Amino acid sequence: MVQKIVTMILEFKENIAEAIDKVEQGYKDAYPVYVELKDLVKFITSCLSQIEEQVIEEVGDQKLTYSGYEIERRKGSPRYSFNHIHSIKQLQSQIKDLENLHKLAYDRQSKGLEPIVDADTGEIVEAAVVKYTKDSIVIKQSKEI
Q: In this structure, what is the dihedral angle of CA atoms 108, 114, 119, 122, given to the nearest 10 degrees?
């Protein structure tokens, strides 16, 4: 049974690689392949989520190997929350206000308007630096009419 699934997956990977080659060579449009692969990623992610707890139980404290992969359970790391600490919330609020002021300074500078002057110090408020992320593709299932 496992060998049959492995064979199916290998064939599937080869088919995907072939589709990508056709896109790269210009024989196929990229966007349909992209949409199908994105949908496949969602499906596979869902499948992995369904069996993850069972895998954690099966692996336990062992270190297993399968098909050239080492499999082991890694315990979750701690995450700290400071949301309940008043002094930290106050400082975070002050930082947010400062960030907004520097964003405003950037907006005014980019529009060629007068700079913002700090009322307390008389200094010009330094404009934030803007960096853009790379373009991305948004895929939403269309509503059928």
A: 120
